[in-house]
Amino acid sequence: MSNPYEIDHNIKPNETPRRRTRRPSMTSFFSHLAQIESTSPSHNNPHATPTPVDMAAAERILQDQLLHFLSATSSPGQEAFLQSLITSLEQDIAQPPIEVPGVSQSYLDQLERVSRKSLKKGDECKICGEEFLNDEFSLVVQLPCHPLHRFDLECVGPWLRLQGTCPLDRKNLEDDRKKRLQDLVKSCTDEEEDYDDMYA
């Protein structure tokens, strides 16, 4: 059904209805995380640590997002995967950590982006279950632990910020990044020594 503006300006209504996204808004999660992170610029006391209640609340918000995805899935594989993430969060809610073990926002900003051209039909986010190519504006990231660990940044971002591990293999991404940096520094140092030996 057209509205008067569309009729007056000869605008034909879109034949295909716009598909609604299944991702819930995580603004309350990021707002809460900014309040409890001691590295956040909005934090008043840089030496304060989050209370267990604050950490459990952040874990519950993330758990609610995953429960939303779980209720919408029809894939047994995705259901088992989401259930394992929810169980992990349950354990953290029962025994909250004393600090946020996740990665920083700058780490998320530096994750490798996957271009639409390299995505294949059927590639989907393991968290929300949406095919990457079905979302016109999806921002797909590849985690450094494995070339096939690809997710929508909107889905994996909250998990990484709070947990700091790959949702699939649970490798600690910050430790992995530090190891790769050490290897890079070592290889540069070795090359420099080889260069010095060549012209000594």
From TrEMBL:
One of its GO terms (cellular component) is cytoplasm. Residues 1-23 are annotated as: Disordered. InterPro entries: Znf_RING (IPR001841), Znf_RING/FYVE/PHD (IPR013083). Keywords: Metal-binding, Zinc, Zinc-finger. One of its GO terms (molecular function) is ubiquitin protein ligase activity. Residues 1-18 have a biased composition (Basic and acidic residues). The keyword Metal-binding applies. Residues 125-170 form the RING-type domain. The keyword Zinc-finger applies. GO terms for biological process: protein ubiquitination. It comes from Golovinomyces cichoracearum. This is Putative RING finger protein.
